[in-house]
Fold Chromate transporter.
Amino acid sequence: MVDTENDANKQKVSTMKTLLEIFVVSTRLGLTSFGGPVAHLGYFHEEYVRRRKWMDEQAYADLVALCQFLPGPASSQVGIGIGVMRAGAIGGILAFIGFTFPSVIALLFFASFLHIFDVSRAGWLHGLKLVAVAIVAHAIMGMAKNLTPDLQRRTIAVFAMVFTLLLQTTYTQIGVILLSGLIGYLIYRQEETVQEDLKAAVRFPLSRKFATISLCLFFGLLVVLPIIKELTASNYITLFDSFYRSGSLVFGGGHVVLPLLEREFVPTGWLSEEQFLAGYGATQAVPGPLFTFAAYIGAVAYGWQGGLIATIAVFLPAILLVFGTLPFYDALRRNPKIKSIFMGINAAVVGILIAAFYNPVWTSSIFAPIDFAIASILFFLLAYWKLPPWIIVIAGAMGGTLQSLFM
């Protein structure tokens, strides 16, 4: 009996340590992950796969492919999924809080004080964009090596890149993923390589009943919230409904949600065009997911309470979708035919990342030879000196500041 109690206590201590580790690591990433959703995937890959080995390359690529397929902030959903893998639903929530709330708090302060400052031309901000160039390039190299080992998958990646660059619409990305999955199935369904690594399946400790409830809640809120809004005429319910709908229907991540939010809130008078653009600049200046721009809009409209409500509303669909799909996901990826589909999808993800590396990462960062030089140095420090990402962030900010002073 005593041994049983001791084992239970040890298990509780181990669980608490795991949860604390998830929160600490995700918070550090939330404080240092500059550069937008594509760069965040690079930070996650470096921290969770290469350094901590919480999951292998294939499992990470599969998780990224799933989250690219789902509506919402893909990088945040990947972080939530990794937290779930480590410690269930609580681990996923802690991973979300750690990664998200540093930028939420910063943007709440920006909503109150940004009119005093002008960071749109700050040198350190440009330096952080150069950090994103290095981070994304490093992530693409690692993922391409593992996910496109043969000519067929390299070809899929190239065509995914081309279509994503030339057809920049909301639904291009999901169309490319669906088509690549079909091509992967047609090419690899009979290949023996499809059977590899099935024993290395990732375990997500959530029940299918819990997943079903999450999916029902996701769709239920889409239907119920507009009705409650009309019945109550509450400003907070209206705010929650608007952001929940935005978070539910956006494919492509934060860069897509920003113009959607502009159309949702500027014409209705919730905030002016100038306030929106100021908040956009602030969002680019802080680490973490771009979806936290919701905190700024909510705070401009209804103070810090509005900022928190908007944040919860815009991220809630992403959390529910991750909880609702992961318990079924592992069984699917273990199926040989399904695995052939993900071989095609994973190759497409590499192409999509390359497209995003060009636009917006490269096009918004590299304007002159000095920009390319700084980005190259940062990439060298990251890829070959193996310096941690937070040092690269500091070096990039310093490099951008020096550039603005002397160039």
